[in-house]
Known about the structure:
0% strand, 78% helix, elongated, mainly alpha
Amino acid sequence: MRKLIIASVAYLSCWAVILHLLNKFGISGDYVASGTTAVVGYLAYLVFELGQISQLRSAAKILVLDIRNAEDAHGAVRGGASFAAWSKVVIPENNWPKLKQNFVSVLNSDEFKIFDQFFHTWSELASAKKRWEEFQFSGIAAKAQYVQQKLIDLESLDSAELEKRRRSIIDRVNGEKFLFEPDLASHQLSHFLTTLTPLTGTTGFEKLRKVAGIR
């Protein structure tokens, strides 16, 4: 952007000098009008280019932040796999597919492939985590439904026996930690956790970071 601004200032300064000289020496107004048109046209072009640069920088910032958030979450999960770490493994919106066309002139084909693979793997990891959670919650819901039905079935007992059986059912179910989890869900999580390769430090990420103006 700095080079564009310097070149623009030089261009406009030259035209300002030329127009001044044309007026000073009484050159035909047609030349003055043509020069003025050229200046106005260039200003319109300059505004367009600055808008494109701003759009490119904004897109790069979004992607850099997305990448860093994903890598932070990935590192946290691999470092301890706590509930807090897993809560960060989420992708509310994958911005790469809709923004990558902005970087056709910035990234080469190999770098594009690496970015495609990273965001694909991250999306699959987030989806696998969601499916795994759904299996867990369905198991918890099934246990809750089972307990509820068992307690309802005790209504015919007298008060003393009812309380005894009620406590027995609740304690037994609370003590049972097993929840059925299909192997596929955990295998998918493990696969995508190990195949996600960080982008930080790659040539493509460095290009993106420079465009974004982020250190």
